[in-house]
């Protein structure tokens, strides 16, 4: 457990319209970067979070195309305290087809890449039951790096 200071800085990946960002902002966190591939989510996020004095950089596009160098340039010298987000989970979900070849399955590794890059005090990744058990655990273990 860590002690939260005021103005802790977070990155929100796969942010959608910014529900998680809002919850963290309500608790005094500062969002310093948000990302989603969906342009409609970007428009809604900007309306919800950037039209009221906040100037949150929002990267619209595939996080896989945003290099470590580009991420570091956006963040600058800021210390990242947390990474939050919900990578796509349709391929893992027990309610879905559980398709081990769903290309979205690998986006969870992008979340982990950002965690490893910034080494925050905490991360919060929303996902579904089935992430670890997909294909008898092989999908999760494939190309997995340690984030701890």
Report on this model:
This protein has a five-stranded parallel β-sheet with strand order 3-2-1-4-5, with helices on both faces. Residues 144-148 have low confidence and may be disordered. It is globular. It is an alpha/beta fold and 148 residues long. The chain has five helices and five strands. Strand 1, helix 1 and strand 2 form a beta-alpha-beta unit.
What is the straight-line distance between the termini?
A: 14 Å
Biggest pleated sheet: 5 strands, parallel
Strand fraction: 15-25%
How confident is the prediction overall: mean pLDDT?
Answer: 80
Oligomer: single chain
**Unreliable spans:** 144-148
- Which word captures the global form? globular
- Which structural class do the helices and strands define? alpha/beta
List strands and helices in order, with pairings.
Blueprint: E1 9-13, H1 19-26, E2 30-36, H2 39-49, E3 58-60, H3 68-75, E4 82-85, H4 107-118, E5 122-125, H5 138-141
Parallel strand pairs: 1-2, 1-4, 2-3, 4-5
Q: Brief overview, please?
A:
With 148 residues, the protein is α/β, with parallel strands linked by helices.
Any key phrases for this structure?
5 helices; five-stranded parallel sheet; globular; disordered C terminus; 16% strand; 148 residues; alpha/beta
């Amino acid at each position: 457990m860590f002690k939260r200071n005021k103005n802790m800085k977070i990155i929100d990946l796969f942010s959608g319209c910014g529900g998680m960002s809002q919850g963290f902002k309500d608790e005094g966190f500062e969002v310093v970067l948000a990302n989603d591939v969906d342009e409609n989510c970007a428009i809604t996020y900007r309306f919800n979070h950037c039209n009221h004095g906040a100037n949150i950089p929002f990267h619209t596009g595939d996080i896989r195309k945003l290099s470590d160098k580009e991420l570091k340039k956006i963040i600058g010298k800021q210390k990242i305290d947390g990474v939050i987000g919900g990578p796509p989970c349709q391929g893992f979900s027990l309610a879905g087809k559980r398709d081990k070849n769903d290309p979205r399955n690998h986006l969870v590794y992008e979340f982990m890449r950002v965690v490893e890059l910034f080494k925050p005090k905490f991360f919060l990744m929303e996902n579904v039951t089935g992430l670890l058990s997909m294909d008898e655990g092989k999908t999760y273990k494939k190309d997995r790096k340690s984030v701890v």
